[in-house]
Structures are given as C-alpha cells and as structure tokens.
Amino acid sequence: xxxxxxxxxxxxxxxxxxxxxxxGCRYCEAHTIRAAERFGAEQEKLDNIWDYSTxxxxxxxxxx
Length: 64
Hints:
This protein has one domain. With 64 residues, the chain is mainly alpha-helical. 52% of the residues lie in helices and 0% in strands.
C-alpha cells in the first residue's frame, strides 16, 4: 500500500486489522496488527482501537 494520500500507513494497517477481526481471519489479524506496529502505530491507539470514535488518542480525521 503506497502512502500517497493523507491516510498514514499505520492507520491503513489498523483498518485492515479491524476488517480482519470482523471477518474472522486470525491469520490476517496477526499480520495487520504487527504491520501497524512496524509502520509506527502508537501503542495507545492499538490498545484502544475499538474505541477509535471516542478515544482521545485518535484525531478527528482518523475517526471518519
């Protein structure tokens, strides 16, 4: 995934993790969450990923 837009590489991977979890793909879950870490996702965001719409670690543009 190239990073030509305003969505960061780590956020793309976090979105991938949520989609993988929702669809029940444990293999994809494991790889997308680790990729998010490698691309610089903050631990606080990873810990609160399911509360992204209200948690203060997430910026307004990340909640859209």
